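ingest -> fold -> write
write: protein_1
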Amino acid sequence: MAQALRGVDVEIEKGEYVAVMGSSGSGKSTLMNVLGCLDRPTTGEYYLDGKNVASMGDEELSRYRGRTIGFIFQAFNLIPELTIEGNVEVPLFYQGVTPSTRRERALEALRMVQLDHRLGHRPKELSGGQMQRVAIARALVTRPVLLLADEPTGNLDRATGQAILQVFDDLNDQGMTVVMVTHDPKVSERCQRIVRLADGVVETDVRQVPLRPARLGAEAVAI
C-alpha cells in the first residue's frame, strides 16, 4: 500500500506563517489532516502546543482539536440558515459555552475581521470576500493556537483574495501561527517559510523574508 507521507519531520514554531506547497498527490492534504488532528499518523508522534495528540483517545482528541485549531476552507462551509454571528458561534456551541458568552465572543471575532456592521445578515446576503471573513471569524472564535487554511482565496477574485490575505498577514503580525496550503507562488511569498512536498516527503523547507504588497485602502476593494 502506498504511503501518503513517508518520514515527514516538520517543526513549526509559535507565531510562524508557513506555506505548504506541492503538486497534486504530493501529500499536502494528508499533512494538513494530520496537523489538524483529523487523521492520526500511523507511526511517529505529533506534538501540538506541547501535547502528543497522536496518543489521545478519540473524545479527548476531538475536544482538544476544537480548542486549539481553527480551520478555514476554500468553500467557506457556512450554514445558510444562520446569521453571520450564528455561524461564528457554532464551534462554541459544541464546546458547551453559554449563549451569552458565545454571542460576546462571536462579536469580538467579527470585529477582528471588520464585519461587525453586518450583524443579522445571512451568507447569501454577503459577497465572497465577506463570507470568507465570516469563516475566518468562526475559526478565531475558539481562540486557537494554530490556524489552518486550505486554499482560502481559491474561490475569490484577485482583488478580494488580496484583501483576505491581508487579514492573514495582520493575524500573523499579532502572533497567530498560520499554516496555509497554496499552489500560488504569490501567496507563498507572503509567508515566512515554504514547506514543499513531493511524493510524500519534504522536498524543501525554506525560510524567507515575507514579501507583502502595499496595504489596500478601505476604498480599494469592497469585500
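write: protein_2
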Amino acid sequence: MDLGTSLPAAAAMMDRVFELDRNFENGAIHEFYILYYGSLPDYMGGSAAKAREHFKLALEVSGGKSSTPYLSLATTVSVKEQNIKEFKTLLNQALRIDPEAVPKNRLLTILNQRKAQWLLEHADDYFLESEDTDKDKEEKRS
C-alpha cells in the first residue's frame, strides 16, 4: 500500500524533471518512463505505447550507447505482452553495447549485460510459451 501512495509523488517529481530537461543525463528520464509506463497496469496509467515512445527517445538521446532502455522494455512490455522474440532481440541488443562507449556508465553497462545474459538463459521462466510453435514441437517429436 505504501508503494501505491508514494508512486504518484515519484511520478510527479519525474514529470517536473521532464519539464525542465527532457534529455536529462542522456535520456535517463526516458529510461524511467519506460519502466514506469511499462510496469503499471493500464488502469493505473500504464501504457505500452508510451513505454515504446520513451524507448525510442532514450535511444535517440543516448545515441544508442545505453543498455538500460533495452533491458527496461524487455522486462516490462515484452514480458507483459508475452513477446519472447522481442524480449530476446532487445536483450541481445543490450549485449552488443560497448561498455567503453560511455566511460562513466561502464559499470552500469557491464551489470546490465550480466543481467541481460541471465535473463536470456532464463527466458522460459517469463513466458507461458516458448518461441517454438506447435508445428515446430511436432517436427521435433518426429
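write: annotation protein_2
The mean pLDDT is 89.
The helical segments are 2-20, 24-39, 48-62, 68-80, 84-95, 106-121, 134-141.
pipeline exit 0
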